[in-house]
Write a structure and sequence with these properties.
By secondary structure, the protein is mostly helical. Among the domains are: about 50 residues, no CATH class; about 100 residues, no CATH class; about 100 residues, no CATH class. About 45% of the residues lie in helices and about 5% in strands. It has 17 helices and six strands. A four-stranded mixed sheet has the order 1-2-3-4, covered by helices on one side. α17 links the parallel β5 and β6. α4 crosses α5, α8 runs antiparallel to α9 and α15 packs across α16. The longest helix is centred in the middle third of the chain and has 23 residues. The chain is extended and about 90 Å long.
Length: about 450
């Protein structure tokens, strides 16, 4: 379905319904064939090998190809930001990892100062380590009123940063602000610039709340609360009068998108739970303990026969599935005809303004984020560069970042990593491996690749 119009059924004018039906089936086959060019062509494998599900995009750098694939397939290229923040909190992502990536991204701009706030690197690093909390105005007002957000500095802040914030605020208040609050126009105390009238009014209320007369005797906790509330009012005044950012409506491409917005139920999750369980034993190469019933039949017939059992499927939302499968079987409807019938019932066009397009939401990150194969080869950089020069396909995979290549020098313990088109000495972030009692202790709660660890049990 295209996002530019509502789904409607196109019925071409034809003198022969049979010829029209055949033509529509042929167009459907063409669409399926076109979509298959973007999908892996390799069938089930009996041993583990590197299998690139984006082989049609290998001419692009890895990150660019993943993003391009997300646009083609309508899926998410990476895990949600919240997942990465949970990994950071759990130690799976380290601050040193963030700093390394940011330095690569910023280059020479990393150490450039940003006013008096620090360097561009430190600002970007703080934004990644301490995310902004977003929410509607009512939620924000509740958070400010019911928590200690405006009385105590966050625990994540280092002692040095806390003391610097409090010290700078105290000097600013005592030197530049205090005398200007009561002065007409806010222009007292030397040559310091006057305070904005709106901000002066807000600060006057803050002084009154905390008791300006006793400011010389304020405790450190009072200064902490005053600092946070002053910072809050300064920020509030800074965005005063700004128009809210326009809300960009989400693109409704598929029927699933409309259903999800209207009901909150994700049909993809329901369907994938059934199909993943069915496809795995159907494609089994003899490793499963129990064979799939009716596996000798073709995919469509095996599924139909299995789910037409008297007991029926266990899921409530599939209670009418046996009856529908029985109708297809009795009418001798082929898989291709069943697809076309479903598209017609959903009102999906199949003509010149076709709505048909591939859509595999979340398939790329249903189990884990995009990962690459790591090769550690005992060789020299010169030999590996010669191999890449001789074999363009290998060179393309390495230079575009589809595989991670590392060489271990045969004559020494030196390790070099291939990055940015050249080999560089490997600089480990840690000199000792983490120690755990069992491998289960190490990978429990994780679903992606883990670094090496020393098993002591």
């Amino acid at each position: 379905m295209t996002p530019h119009h509502c789904p409607t059924l196109e019925t071409p004018v034809s003198s022969s319904p049979t010829r029209d039906r055949t033509a529509r089936l042929d167009r459907l086959s063409s669409v399926i064939d076109h979509a298959s060019h973007w999908l892996p062509a390799q069938g089930p494998i009996t041993v583990f090998i590197h299998h690139n599900t984006l082989h049609a995009l290998e001419e692009l750098p890895f990150d660019d190809a993943v993003k391009r694939g997300s646009r083609i397939f309508g899926c998410h290229p990476f895990l949600p930001e919240e997942d990465y923040r949970r990994k950071l909190a759990a130690g799976r992502i380290r601050p040193a990892d963030l700093e390394m990536v940011l330095r690569q991204d910023l280059g020479a701009r990393a150490d450039a100062p940003i006013l008096s706030l620090g360097t561009r690197l430190s600002l970007r690093l703080a934004m990644l380590e301490h995310p902004f909390c977003l929410g509607p105005a009512a939620e924000l007002r509740w958070f400010v009123a019911e928590t200690d957000a405006l009385t105590r500095i966050r625990r994540e802040a280092s002692p040095a940063a806390r003391e610097r914030l409090l010290g700078n605020t105290q000097r600013w208040i005592m030197r530049d602000v205090r005398g200007k609050i009561a002065a007409p126009g806010g222009a007292a105390n030397g040559s310091a610039p006057p305070i904005d009238p709106h901000l002066r009014q807000r600060m006057a209320g803050l002084f009154k709340h905390f008791g300006e007369a006793s400011i010389e005797r304020w405790s450190s906790r009072t200064w902490e609360a005053f600092t946070l509330q002053a910072q809050w009012r300064v920020c509030h005044e800074g965005v005063h009068g700004l128009r809210p950012a326009p809300v960009v409506p989400s693109e409704m491409i598929r029927h699933r998108d409309w259903l999800l917005e209207a009901t909150g139920d994700d049909s993809d999750s329901l369907v994938q739970a059934v199909m993943i369980r069915f496809c795995a034993p159907f494609l089994d190469q003899g490793f499963a303990h129990w064979p799939l019933p009716y596996r000798a039949l073709v995919f469509f017939r095996a599924f139909s026969t299995l789910y037409r059992q008297e007991a029926g499927p266990p899921d409530l939302w599939l209670r009418d599935l046996p009856r529908e499968l029985g109708r297809l079987e009795e009418a001798a409807i082929t898989p291709r005809e069943s697809i076309l019938e479903s598209l017609e019932m959903l009102g999906v066009m199949d003509g010149a303004a076709s709505d048909l397009r591939t859509g595999l939401p979340w398939q790329m990150v249903e189990i884990h984020e995009p990962v690459r194969l790591l090769f550690v080869i005992e060789s020299t950089p010169a030999r590996m560069e010669a191999i890449m020069q001789k074999n363009p396909a290998i060179g393309q995979l390495c230079r575009n970042g589809w595989i991670q290549l590392t060489v271990l020098d045969p004559e020494s313990p030196a390790i070099q990593v291939f990055e940015g088109g050249a080999f560089h000495p490997y600089d480990p972030l840690a000199t000792r491996l983490p120690r755990v009692a069992t491998s289960t202790d190490w990978y429990r709660g994780c679903r992606d690749h883990l670094e090496y660890a020393e098993i002591t049990g």
